[in-house]
Design brief:
The protein has one domain (about 10-55). It contains no helices and five strands. The chain has strands at about 10, 15-20, 30-35, 40, 50. It has a three-stranded antiparallel sheet, with no helix packed on it. A two-stranded antiparallel sheet has the order 1-2. The chain binds zinc ion. Zinc ion binds near residues 24, 26 and 45.
């Protein structure tokens, strides 16, 4: 956290912070980034969600 570039912009019209990096693959709109509880991109228009990190439980390892 030493040097953070400004990779997002503040939308004064809607009062939301939106990053300009990712576009929704479904509706081609700018997606919103959420850090909690897990880092992910979320589209508020079509509810598309793209998780940055895959769930460790989805590894398919032996459970029992
Ligand atoms: Zn969308």
């Amino acid at each position: 956290m030493a040097h953070v570039h400004k990779r997002y912009e503040y939308d004064y019209k809607t009062g939301k912070i939106r990053l300009k990096n990712k576009i929704c693959p479904r509706c081609s709109r700018i997606m919103a980034f959420h850090k909690h509880p897990v880092p992910r991109w979320h589209c508020g228009y079509c509810n598309y969600t793209d998780f940055l990190t895959k769930s460790p439980e989805a590894g398919g390892k032996s459970s029992s």
